[in-house]
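Ticket 4471: requesting a sanity check on a complex prediction with zinc ion. Repro inputs:
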Amino acid sequence: MSISAESLPATPQRSKSARSAKAKEPPPRVPPFHTNTPEDNPVYHDHHCAAAQQIHDPQEGSDVRPLCGLCAHYGYGRYTGWVDTYGKKATDLPANRQTLDGYLARKAELEKQADDPAAKKELAELTAAIEALEPKVDREQRISDRAQHFNDAYKAAIDAGKASGHSTDEVELLADVIMNEAHDKTIGHLARQVLAYAWINRKGGIKQPIYKKGKKGKRDLSHWDQRERRFGKLDKEFEREWYLDSLTDSLKAVTERLSDKLADTDDPAHGATHWYSPDNQPADTPAEERWWENKKEFEEVTIPGVPTGQFRFYKKKKPAPTPPKPH
Ligand SMILES: [Zn+2]
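Returned structure tokens:
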């Protein structure tokens, strides 16, 4: 995460397998389609994946099928697929909620008859049943909300992209840049919003970070990889939940930036193009990598509300006007 200047050498060397997997460019994205003929494994595709290349008579749309496993490796299929499965854990929520509401209503009735021994007995049983069901319903509600919030945020970002002339790949790329820098759950929305503006300020649009392979390869985002792998490596559900919350928040930041028609004057980044994360900066960072200390080239942009331990933002100084030549 997040030192950021063109002059930086690549940070940690990745494993051999990561490098060879990276070398494969993702296949082109296409509108959703599936085969027109019956098949053993009815899925839809949104990329020209190896399986999709065998389809000769494609039918448009996603039908009610799940996304193809190969296609899910590319683009945000890796998240939407997981969220679909995750959201199904809340399938019983309406029924369980109704049962719980019934229990609570009955409990209120019984409490009025506290002197009646039969009522007292039923009340004790009911209280135990409520105590068992309540956490389950709360958990299902959180799952349902989280899945819904992600799906809504993703859709809104894609729509904001369409309205501002940006492709799905570009929308996902901007969210990926924010996540590369700010996936930690302790980071607030303003920082993610500022990052969305600052990246576009820096690149003049939604463009890929510089990414050169190898130890000495130049990158302009530390730890950037052309295919996001962090989510797939998280094996605990709560880690994936936190990650998804950060991603949902990042997608909201993308929507805000892409919907902003006055980005030049509204810019919450105040023209910042660069940043680094003091809290994550190794104390032994060599002087030549501390670009932010280069006062000739960079000036700091103060952004109240973003903790300076998390991020400090900078822009390049404008060259000083050349003094008029004496006559
Ligand atoms: Zn596919």
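Notes from triage: Residues 45, 47, 49, 51-52, 68, 70-71 surround zinc ion (CB under 6 Å). Leaving this open until the requester confirms.
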